[in-house]
C-alpha cells in the first residue's frame, strides 16, 4: 500500500470518528425533554379584550366577574387536569401577552391563535382545535347599496382597519395595509360609522360571541357584513414559546389531548355549549 493511500485512509478514519462523536453529542445538547416534569405549573395568557365565546370573563346579570370561561378554557382545563398539571390563566393586553410568552418565563402558553410565518419563528403550534369563518364588515351609511367583494384581493381597494397584534396575513395583508390603532374588536364598528375606515375583516363566530358579554354587535342594522370570498375556514391553535425548555413536550401533550377529546365527542359537546358550528 502506498504512503499516499495510507494517509487518505487515515484522514477518512478521523472524519468518520468525528462524525460519530458529533452524532452522539449533538442530540444530547439540543433534544427536547421527553416529558413534562412533576410539580410543573403552566402560565397561560390571552387577550384582555376577550375573544368570546372562546375566552372571556363570565358575566352575571350583565356584570363582569372574575372567572375566566369559554370554549378554549374548557378544552385546556380538561387536558391539563387529566394530566395532573397545575396552571393559571390571565388576560393581558395582547401585545404584552405575546411579548412575555416569547420569553417563556412567566407565561408559556396562549390558547387562541392563527398561524403565520412570523409567529412560527418564535412559537410552536398545537394541531388546530376549531375553525372560524372570515367575514368582511362595512357601514351601510357609507355603502347604502351594500358592498360586494369578489375576493380577498379586493380588500386593498378600501380603507381597512383592524386590531393591533391581530393576524391579517391569511388575507394577503401587511401592517401597512391597515389602520390597526384599535385595541379591541368593539372599537371597529364605530370607526366604520364615523367614516374612519371602510372595511374590517373578522371571524363571524367571535362577533356573534359578544352576545355573551352583553354586546349584540350583529343587531346593529347599520352594520353590513358578508362572507369573504375565497377564504377557507381559518384554523386556530394553542401556541407555546420556543424558549421554554419543555415546549415540544407540552405540544405533544396538547395534540394528544385534543385528539382524545375529538375522538370521544367532547370537542363537539364543548362547541354545542357555546353555540359554535361543527
Task: Set down the secondary structure blueprint.
Layout: H1 3-30, E1 41-47, E2 56-60, E3 63-69, H2 71-82, E4 86-92, H3 94-103, E5 109-113, H4 117-122, E6 123-125, E7 130-132, E8 134-139, E9 160-163, E10 178-182, H5 188-193, E11 199-203, H6 204-209, E12 223-227, E13 234-241, H7 247-263, H8 266-273
Parallel strand pairs: 1-4, 9-10
Antiparallel strand pairs: 2-3, 5-13, 6-13, 7-13, 8-11, 8-12
Describe the overall structure.
The chain has 278 residues and is of the alpha+beta class. The chain has 2 domains: 41-131 and 235-273, D-Maltodextrin-Binding Protein, domain 2 (3-Layer(aba) Sandwich), CATH 3.40.190; 134-227, D-Maltodextrin-Binding Protein, domain 2, CATH 3.40.190.10. The protein has 8 helices and 13 strands. The chain has helices at 3-30, 71-82, 94-103, 117-122, 188-193, 204-209, 247-263, 266-273, and strands spanning 41-47, 56-60, 63-69, 86-92, 109-113, 123-125, 130-132, 134-139, 160-163, 178-182, 199-203, 223-227, 234-241. Strands 5, 6, 7 and 13 form a 4-stranded antiparallel β-sheet that branches. Strands 11-8-12 form a 3-stranded antiparallel β-sheet. β2 and β3 (63-69) form a beta hairpin. The longest helix has 28 residues, at 3-30. The N and C termini lie far apart (74 Å). Mean pLDDT is 89; it is low at 2-9, 11-15 and 17-33.
